[in-house]
Design goal:
Length: about 250
């Protein structure tokens, strides 16, 4: 399993891609409100991405018909944008977006609370976000891939939540998905040793109930098997000789 070690030039392009993606997420955070359709969100995402000179790489990826995955409430990932899917007051909305800048990718996800959201939903969003940072602590050269997942799982399960097993983080660079896989749970195997110059995503997908998932008939949307809420937090990360660098936030 070959893993690309990025050059300084490649890392700088990924930094720029990550900055544009962070700006796109901030724009969406400002505009999402009850009454919008998930297709409205997707249109704004695509317009914003293209305004930065970037390409929305989710669009037509293996046939996916949107520039953003827009998943509501019990939808974990890969929600297909639709004019018929209306965001309501009290919903939680997970936005998973990938873009390319000059041939290099950045991938990040956020779960947003829309309007008057329950305390339970707000806690799920916050725990999911923090679980990303718990995993990030172990994204250091010399550690192993499994150290990240163990940390995410240990933190999340204190709250009685389920860590999705069917989908994981991944390497990223010229391609949206590269080696290695980055699970959010303890696989029981150490996995690859992390080295400076690796670029990966850490992306906990956390269910308020069990970790089991179901596929919807559209062959894309993944939902919780028990109907519980789900949240998602993801960033693109650079492994360095010291602390990891988050490439998909504004510094």
């Amino acid at each position: 399993m070959a893993v690309a070690i990025k050059s300084e030039r490649e890392i700088e392009l990924m930094r720029q891609a990550g900055r544009f993606l962070a700006l796109t997420h901030l724009e969406l955070e400002k505009v999402i409100k009850p009454g919008m359709s998930t297709k409205d969100v997707d249109r704004i995402a695509e317009e914003t991405i293209r305004s930065y000179g970037c390409i929305p790489t989710s669009l037509n990826y293996n046939g996916f018909p949107g520039s953003a995955c827009v998943s509501l409430n019990d939808e974990i990932i890969h929600g297909i944008p639709s004019d018929k899917r209306i965001i309501r007051d009290g919903d939680i909305v997970s936005l998973d977006i990938t873009l390319s800048y000059k041939g290099y990718q950045s991938d990040a996800a956020r779960t947003l609370a829309v309007g008057n959201v329950s305390k339970e939903a707000l806690q799920l969003i916050e725990v999911t976000k923090q679980s990303f940072y718990e995993g990030l602590k172990y994204a250091k050269a010399g550690n192993h891939i499994n150290d990240i997942g163990k940390a995410v799982q240990a933190y999340v399960e204190q709250f009685g939540y389920g860590v999705v097993r069917d989908f994981v983080g991944h390497g990223i660079g010229k391609e949206m998905h590269e080696s290695p896989e980055v699970p959010n749970f303890d696989t029981g195997r150490r996995g690859m040793k992390l080295k400076p110059g690796m670029t990966i995503t850490i992306e906990p997908m956390i269910n308020a109930g069990r970790y089991d998932v179901e596929w919807m008939d559209d062959d894309w949307t993944i939902v919780t098997a028990d109907g519980s809420l789900s949240a998602h937090h993801e960033n693109t990360i650079l492994i360095t000789s010291g602390e990891p660098e988050i490439l998909s936030i504004l510094h």
